[in-house]
Amino acid sequence: MADKRIISLSIEGTTLRILTFTKGSVEAWNSVPLDPKFLAMGHVVDPQGLGGVIKNALEGRDSLTGRVVCALPGLRTMSRLISVPKVGKKELPEVISREVRRLMAVSEADNYLHWQSIPAETDLMRFFVLAVPKEPLHALMEALREAGLKPRAIDLKPLALMRAVNKKDAIIANGESNSVELVIVVDDVPTLMRSVFLGEGVVSQDYAVSRISDELGRTIAFYNDTNPDNPLDPEVPVYLTGAAASGVSFALNVTALIGRPVQPLDPPLPYPENFPVAEFMVNLGLILKLL
User: Which CATH architecture has domain 6-75+135-290?
Assistant: First the structure.
């Protein structure tokens, strides 16, 4: 299975990014433009149209024999760290569901709930909880079926980014033509995730850069305000990913604006020298999910 081809798919703005990985290294990659009408607010609204694009783009890539993994944008998802009293496995789903209704105000009728236990230093049980809206996920799955694909996994874009950056503590900003994904990682836990939609179509590079800088500062300030006893260490670096956030000049601007170092990307996968790492970090994180 280690040598079996993996195909990762991610929708970034109005572009479909495809990366194939086989025999321990990145094999090929490309970006395919999408009709903006296939999407609304960053999510799929025309599964048949998108499915046709995916099917055409994968011709000749052995997609029927490879393992497929796809990213779901973080837009409209919610996450939270919650603590609950220690209970048995049978009682745990109801306890977490009750806390989610109380703290996150999301409906299980409209969202899938996922949770994972994380270490706690108290007598309470601690969990990372994620609420994923059903409708956007169903639409993406329908598009993949239209393309003739049965994905091995669907992963949330911010979690794929965290996996690709591969740092215990990090501030990640992924900037694309019409969206920004932000993740704050503390002790290998995505303690804060935010997804911001910038508008339909494609915004200007200058506007995207400005918004990414603003959202970075706002996200860091919010984290520190809500964690006054454990604010982010000033030395925790920023990692910039995505087509709109990968330039050297932008990195220098971010350092000047927020006073934090911007570190180069170093994902734990081999790739060719000419590979555009920043643009395909989501895809790399998807690959890592299946390895």
Answer: 2-Layer Sandwich (3.30)
